[in-house]
Amino acid sequence: MTAPATATSPIAGADDKAHVLAGRPPIALWVEELTVSFDGFKAIDNVTLMLDHGELRCIIGPNGAGKTTLMDVITGKTRPDKGAVYLESRLHDLTQLTECQIAQLGVGRKFQRPTVFPQHTVYENCELALQGKRGVFHSLFARLSRAERERIDQVLETIGLAELKDRPAGLLAHGHKQWLEIGMLLALDPKVLLIDEPVAGMTQPEMERTADLMRRLAGERTVVVVEHDMEFVRSIARKVTVLHEGRVLAEGPMGDIQRDPRVIEVYLGT
Amino acid sequence: MLRLFQLHGRRGWMVVGAASLLIAVVIPLLNLLPRSFPLALPDYLIPLLGKFLCFGMAAMAMDLVWGYTGILSLGHALFFSLGGYAMGMYLMRSIAGEGVYRSALPDFMVFLDWKQLPWYWLGFNHFGFAMAMVLVAPGLLAFVFGWFAFRSRIKGVYLSIVTQALTYAAMLFFFQNAAGFGGNNGLTDFKRLLGWSLQAPSTKLALYVITAVALIGTYLLCQFIVQSKLGRVLRAIRDAELKTRFCGYDSINYKVFIWTLSAMLCAVAGALYVPQVGIINPSEMQPSNSIELAIWVAVGGRGTLVGPLLGALLLNGGKSWLTAAFPSAWLYVLGSLFVVVTLFLPRGLVGLAPLMSRLRKRRGGSQAMTPPESDRQAEDPVAAAAPVADVVPVANAVAAKEGVAP
């Protein structure tokens, strides 16, 4: 993945957009003219987003701005009316794939409410998330290799849950569950990571630790964070996209965004 | 192979070994003792026990889909019966020319004035073919049904209703004389299995031993599956299917796999059941049979393999005794047992074991011996988290069943 796909791309029409791609860093995720409506209500209205490799992007916006719907479309949970979502400069159109195919291509998602497998231990949660083959018969005979065990230990170390690895995940405290879910995403090792409100309901120290985890996640991967908490967004974001009523209202560095009068009017001012 | 030995620890293997020895060796030996010995097992009990073991197998198969994967099937009696019919068809064909009418056709076909064997009876005079069909016919049906049902994302109560409807439709079909499966009389008057007389006590004992061995094999196979990564994925699907999909597992493939396997195991149990009870007819597919199967699993303990087995053995033992002693009481006992288990024992009888050991610990030691807080925490919420909601349709069905009981 070095050069943007142009003439060699298997997708028809790739050449049309070659001029857009030329001369910019490789794209990790490209949301193109996306429209989603529910019973006539446009949850997302002609949204276009481009994310560079290794970028950490925050998406903010008031309730009902379409943030979660956008996540749903990217991960295959919701089908759009119009538009496309490309992974890696048009190699894959995600809107044609199922949730599990998208996950296998390397798009990970963290839900708003921490979702872990409650009756599996912390260790088993990481094992299930660990990158590898996902077939039925492979699972029947699969055993963890030494490298895989080391990888899980490393993840548990990173999220600070090594001591609790044999505990059923359903018994973890709220903050620990959030970290476990992030740990599962680390184990999945996705190229693009979508994170929905990671600090909702967290205490201040937990929030700082989460910000630290987020920064560590970005760099190798592309990370998209949807968040309400402005303090938190300020502490991690380099570039921010503001959604409002299903449209992109503004996009840019956090400093510019905070000064944008339109943004202040709909969001920050309140 | 190595992994098979690692299924249990040393103590676990000792328990499994002892239980296997009891059902597969000790009970047959007791039956072989001369009648005058005090512990001698009378001949009539052997097919009865064999029948219970078949139910135990079916219950374990049921638990693979319900307890481990969260799919409540109310149609497993269908797969059980199809396995039974495949065996019954072989038993009918193997005595061609010896029926009441001395015809090459089974008696009921002569009675219906059929001149020719229907095409779907061809081949059933070969034992190997019939045994293959025991697996293939229910397996194929389960695969096709599962493929469409799971792909359409039918879940929970809706799936239970659809499975029940499928079974009911099949029952109505098999009731028809024109279907070619003996109508409401089904298939009966079996005489020999591979040349061995089914009336001989030695054949009955052999069938019992085969059933016991099949049960032990089923247990080991299921244990292997639930302890593999596949088993962990199945439980993940049960607890959070969407999350499992976002982790990259195609839950539909997993569900179709375990559903089909469960149906095939159930069919094997049905095939072993038929020669021991001597008849298979469409009433085996009636709704209450599938529901009872679910109750054995719930009472014994979902999400374990020992639980359903115990549930099936205890409840059927209880049924045999109660229906003889107090014929009208059984359904009330069954119904109330199910309500009690649902409300107070979400993990079934097996869930009592940790409770008992804790009680014993508390009584044995001083007050200071109570387990540390973390231990207690570790046990309770898991029980609380066990899905209770999906038991409700069964509870309703049981209520309905009691309502129509005479």
Written description of the protein model:
The complex is a heterodimer of chains A (270) and B (406). With 270 residues, chain A is an alpha/beta fold. Chain A has a single domain, classed as 3-Layer(aba) Sandwich (Rossmann fold), CATH 3.40.50. Helix content of chain A is 36%, strand content 24%. In chain A, α6 runs antiparallel to α7 (174-188). The longest helix of chain A has 15 residues, at 174-188. Chain A is globular, with a radius of gyration of 19 Å. The termini of chain A are far apart. In chain A, 44% of the residues are buried. Chain B is mainly α and 406 residues long. Chain B has helices spanning 2-5, 10-32, 45-65, 76-93, 107-111, 127-151, 156-175, 201-227, 229-239, 241-246, 251-277, 287-300, 306-325, 330-344, 352-364, 373-385, 392-404; strands at residues 187-188, 192-193, 196-197, 279-280. In chain B, a hairpin with a 2-residue loop joins β2 (192-193) and β3 (196-197). In chain B, α12 (287-300) crosses α17. The longest helix of chain B is centred in the middle third of the chain and has 27 residues, at 201-227. Chain B is globular and about 70 Å long. Classes of the chains: A alpha/beta (270), B mainly alpha (406). The A-B interface holds A 75, 77, 98-101, 103-104, 108-109, 111, 115-120, 124, 127-129, 134-136, 139-143, 167-168, 170-171, 184, 188 and B 3, 225, 228-230, 232-233, 235-236, 239-240, 242-251, 253-254, 257, 377-378, 381-382, 385.
